[in-house]
Amino acid sequence: MSFTPSTPWQDRSVVVTGGTRGIGRGIAEAFARRGAAVALTGRDAKTAEEVADGLARATGGRVCGVGADLREPEAIEALAAEVERRHGHIDVLCANAGIFPEKPLREMTAADIDEVLHVNLRGSMLAVRACLPAMERVGRGRVVLTSSITGPTTGFPGWSHYGASKAGQLGFLRGAALELAPLGITVNAVLPGNIRTEGLDAMGADYLRRMTASIPLGRIGETADIAHAALFLASDEAAFITGQTLTVDGGQTLPESLDSLDSLEAP
């Protein structure tokens, strides 16, 4: 028996926050290749427009770039209004924008904490709130949060504020999923492990080598791995799934120690 997805992407309008690079860019590209009208955001409007133009040429899809600083509530409201004006409606929000500056806890300032929480957690919440009226007007909606294994499942030194923001997203997810279910709007999250992006590459070859060694599937993830998960959660096929998380980490969170990986042998 074959599986044929039925979601009419050509009729769907998708917002991807933090879509100018990394995972967000990969998500925007995946939706564009399937025919959806995609609006990607970044703090710098010119960069967002340039990335959108490049994706439109590469995919033959409908992609626009909109500048929006997710630390500013007014900017997020303006973003939702602009996308609805351009596309006529909003069906999917991929709340992906996030930052992960490294800082040991003993050196972390209140401003450091506020910056991460404002972008990663508060920004996601405000983006959902801003897009909600447009989704209500079409009588359906899909919200897909980009969380992380760091915070909800694991921890990593130097990223305690990042982990707190990503765990906080899941607390928000469950409450929002309950509130929005009567409106036909689902709220789910993807929890990426180590995914090859500009930020991960900047960690250096030794970090990549050690991280690869901790992943049972033997490779760092690609942005397409996360994009495919987001596509599914935003699809009609996932209409009965809400308040849930999908971990995409190549099995990284499975072993109780590296010793358990050392005992594995390829068939």
Give structural notes.
By secondary structure, this protein is α/β, with parallel strands linked by helices. The protein has one domain (9-248): Rossmann fold. Helices cover 46% and strands 14% of the residues. It has nine helices and seven strands; from the N terminus they run E-H-E-H-E-H-E-H-E-H-E-H-H-H-E-H. It has helices at residues 22-33, 45-59, 73-87, 110-138, 160-180, 198-201, 205-213, 223-234, 258-262; strands at residues 13-16, 37-42, 62-67, 92-95, 141-146, 185-192, 245-248. The protein has a seven-stranded parallel β-sheet with strand order 3-2-1-4-5-6-7, with helices on both faces. Helix 2 (45-59) links the parallel strand 2 and strand 3 (62-67). Helix 1 packs across helix 8. It is globular and about 55 Å long. The model has no long low-confidence stretch (mean pLDDT 93).
What's a quick, concise take on this entry?
By secondary structure, the chain is of the alpha/beta class.
Task: Write out key terms for the chains shown.
single chain; alpha/beta; Rossmann fold; seven-stranded parallel sheet
CATH class, anyone? Answer: Alpha Beta
What is the CATH fold-level name? Rossmann fold
Structural class: alpha/beta
Total number of beta strands: 7
What integer value in Å does the Rg equal? 18 Å
Work out the strand percent.
Answer: 5-15%
Strand order of the largest sheet: 3-2-1-4-5-6-7
Q: Could you spell the SSE succession in H and E letters?
A: EHEHEHEHEHEHHHEH
What would CATH call the homologous superfamily? NAD(P)-binding Rossmann-like Domain
Main sheet attributes: strand count, strand direction, barrel closure:
7 strands, parallel
Count every helix, treating DSSP H or I runs of 4 or more residues as helices: 9
Mean pLDDT over all positions: 93
